[in-house]
Amino acid sequence: MAEVSIRERVKRPPAPAMIKSYYGPALERAIHHAFDLELWVHLAHAAMLERQKIVSSADVAALRAALLALHEAGPAALGADGSAEDLYSYTERHLIRALGPEVGGRLHTGRSRNDLHVTTWRMVLRGMLLDVLDALGAFRAVVLDQARRYAGAVMPGYTHWQHAQPVTFGYYLLAFADLLGRDFARVAAALDRTDRCPLGAGALATTAFPLDRAFVADALGFAGVMEVA
Predict the structure, then answer these.
(1) pTM for this one?
(2) How confident is the model at residue 9 (pLDDT cuts 50, 70, 90)?
């Protein structure tokens, strides 16, 4: 007897409590932060599937047109009704309804929702980290500017909450500039670790399809691919 996945065995939508407590909030976050980015991942993956001759150019052209139309229409076109567990499930349902299972179902060739989700959320996090770096850099620039301005303003330095050596206010501000510089380096290191593309890793042991992971990573602006054991 053929094996049937758990998703195929489940015939009814999730309980309202599950939708309210888990599926609903998770979907709202994904739509808010990741809708556009996940579409970019789909487009890059589709381009790679065509480039590697895994999916025909005609099918990829249809998928690309449907994805761009979905981007234009916005997330409301997905008709999220609580019957699916994540953003991709709604997107796949939308594509299959628009193109049929033989074409709409080919977009997911060679990947899992696991590596798809991690790729998308790494892109989300990458944007957030870049915003933090911009803010830290701007703040540090202001502190350094004020340090130069008050380089000659004498003030008491403190140790153990008591007056110690005389310093300047500019010197005091440089301490904050150094702290911000270390914070910048830490966030930059986190960005470097985040900026690796896991797409193609699959759910466990990659895939037998001849994927070009480097092509997708480059198309999505990643510094490289994440190593797969």
Answers:
(1) 0.87
(2) low
